[in-house]
Every structure is written in structure tokens, then in C-alpha cells.
Write a structure and sequence with these properties.
Blueprint: H1 2-13, H2 18-25, E1 35-39, E2 45-50, E3 82-86, H3 89-95, E4 103-111, E5 117-121, H4 125-131, E6 133-134, E7 138-139, H5 144-150, H6 154-171, H7 182-194, E8 199-203, E9 211-216, H8 217-223, E10 224-237, E11 243-254, E12 260-262, E13 272-273, H9 278-286, E14 292-293
Parallel strand pairs: 5-8, 13-14
Antiparallel strand pairs: 1-5, 2-4, 3-9, 4-10, 6-7, 8-9, 10-11, 11-12
Length: 297
């Protein structure tokens, strides 16, 4: 079974078009079920933009780009805007290739209270089997994912993990831009055609162990809202992927036009979160060292 997988892998990698890639990988889904998770309010997703002269004033400048500025990306076609974000600030900084001394603006987003955003997650089967938890979403509740693998015959379980690693490689291939992301975009289309989800979660190319998400623009409008914005200065990109940076400023809120309302302190000590639910506000107040609570939703 693994030899057959490798035969298909080689055919897919050698394909010269998205259609050819899709045709090549289709048999893999006989032994591979796409892992799909429903996410609620908890996780903060981060987007980063380097600052050219002054901080961006409006949330629209840190959201997904307009149609006319949407170039081909890892999981989107030209002219099709999508919402890319990372699950950690450090991953978002790494993804925009920050340099020493740069100012970078980070915007944090959370799922709208009461909503559920569904993501197809690639690259986690082997993580759960090896460590017992997901890198993307933390623990594996009730060992649900682990049991999916354990309940399969051994050969099929190994094949599922192998295919998952292959798909993760395609989505996180550091050389994918050299071929205009033909293979990763094609795989994204296949995943969306076989799983009902708002987007895809996949391993970061730039930050080992980190995860990114790619959510369809209309779905991000429905499910995600900005809850934080900060400016940081990159002190130094150190070895082994560590980015040393300082917090320069943080926003307290958004006004009705989507403009950031910046904190009055010149050197804030913690990030302010706004648009919180009552429960989040009370938790923030009880753990004041973690962050500075902003307004309620």
C-alpha cells in the first residue's frame, strides 16, 4: 500500500497543471479522510504587515486584500481574495519575512461569539499519533483523532499518516512559489470539494511547528472579527527561528468606521483586547497580568 502511495506522490509532484495534479491524487482519498474541526471563540488568529512609514489606520488595511490586489497565493487563485492568518504572533511575523529594526503591525481576530468556523486541518494525524496532541488546536479531546487511526487496520493507518504528511508537504512546500503554487492551489481545491469547511489549516512554511489558516473571504466576513491590534519593533531575528521584538503600541478599540483607537501610553506593557464578551472581560480582569481588557461586545 505504501509503494502505491509513493507512485501516486511521484505522479502528482511531476504534474505540470492543477488538473493533472487533482487527477493524480484522487485515488489517495480512498484511504484518507480529511480531518475537519469546528472552532469557537477561543483562538486568536494573527495577521501581520510591515509598516512603511506610519501605522495602518483602518482594519481594512490589515484584512484580506481587495480583488484587484489578490495575486496567486499558496491556496488562492489570482483575483480570489482569501483570509490568511497564523495561530501565533511569532508565526505571523515569520510569514512576512521581518528584518531587524522593522516596525510591524499585527491584527488579532477571533470567531464571532456563538459562531462555529469549520476548518479542514492537514498535517495533524502524525502529530497526534506521535505526541498525543495537535499542534494546531492543542489537545485531542477524548483521543478522538488518535482513535480514528488506532481503529484502522495497521496498513491503512500507516497509509493515512503517510498521505497526511504528503499533503502537508504540498501545502507547506517552501519552493511552491517557483511554480506559481500550482500544486498547493490544486490540493486546496480538492480539499474544499471533498469537505464542507470554511477554510484550511496547514503547517507554516516559515515557523516550524506553527500553523496557518486560509479562510474564504466571505466566510471570514461571517465568522471573524478583529479584537486586537499592536505595533512591534523587530530587535533581531535570531537563530533557530526566534524573533526578538518589543511592543511599541496597542489599540484600545475600533471606532464605527473601523479606525484603530490607540492606547495613550507611549510604551504599553501589555496587549489590549477589545470586543470581548462579558465572560472574557471578567476573565481578563481576574488575570490582569495577561492582557489589558478593552470594550465589551
Amino acid at each position: 500500500m505504501l509503494d502505491q502511495c509513493e507512485y501516486i506522490f511521484d505522479r502528482a509532484i511531476g504534474s505540470s497543471s492543477g488538473a493533472e495534479f487533482c487527477y493524480a491524487v484522487d485515488p489517495l482519498f480512498e484511504n484518507y479522510k480529511i480531518l475537519t474541526l469546528g472552532l469557537g471563540r477561543g483562538t486568536v488568529f494573527w495577521r501581520a504587515r510591515t509598516i512603511k512609514s506610519k501605522p495602518y489606520e483602518n482594519i481594512s488595511e490589515l484584512d484580506y486584500p481587495p480583488v484587484e490586489l489578490s495575486s496567486e497565493g499558496r491556496l488562492n487563485d489570482k483575483g480570489v481574495p482569501v483570509f490568511y492568518a497564523a495561530t501565533r504572533e511569532e508565526t505571523a511575523l515569520a510569514e512576512v519575512n521581518v528584518e531587524d529594526g522593522q516596525l510591524v503591525q499585527l491584527a488579532g481576530f477571533k470567531v464571532v461569539p456563538g459562531n462555529t468556523m469549520r476548518l479542514s486541518v492537514v498535517g495533524e494525524y502524525s502529530n497526534v499519533v506521535k505526541s498525543g496532541y495537535m499542534h494546531f488546536a492543542g489537545l485531542d479531546p477524548d483521543k478522538t483523532i488518535l482513535n480514528i487511526v488506532r481503529n484502522l487496520p495497521h496498513a491503512k493507518a500507516v497509509a493515512k499518516i503517510y498521505i497526511d504528511r504528503f499533503f502537508a508537504h504540498i501545502l507547506a512546500d517552501p519552493t511552491a512559489s517557483e511554480s506559481s503554487y500550482i500544486h498547493s492551489r490544486a490540493l486546496g481545491h480538492v480539499i474544499h470539494s471533498k469537505a464542507q469547511a470554511d477554510g484550511i489549516a496547514f503547517p507554516s512554511v516559515k515557523d516550524r511547528g506553527g500553523f496557518n489558516i486560509c479562510v474564504k473571504a466571505e466566510n471570514s466576513d461571517l465568522h471573524l472579527r478583529n479584537v486586537a491590534c499592536l505595533v512591534v519593533r523587530i530587535n533581531k531575528r535570531r537563530r533557530f527561528g526566534l524573533i526578538d521584538y518589543d511592543l511599541i503600541s496597542t489599540a484600545d478599540n475600533l471606532n464605527e468606521n473601523g479606525d484603530f483607537q490607540w492606547h495613550s501610553q507611549s510604551e504599553p506593557k501589555q496587549v489590549a483586547f477589545y470586543g470581548m464578551t462579558k465572560d472574557e472581560f471578567e476573565e481578563a480582569r481576574a488575570n490582569a497580568k495577561g492582557f489589558s481588557p478593552g470594550g465589551l461586545v
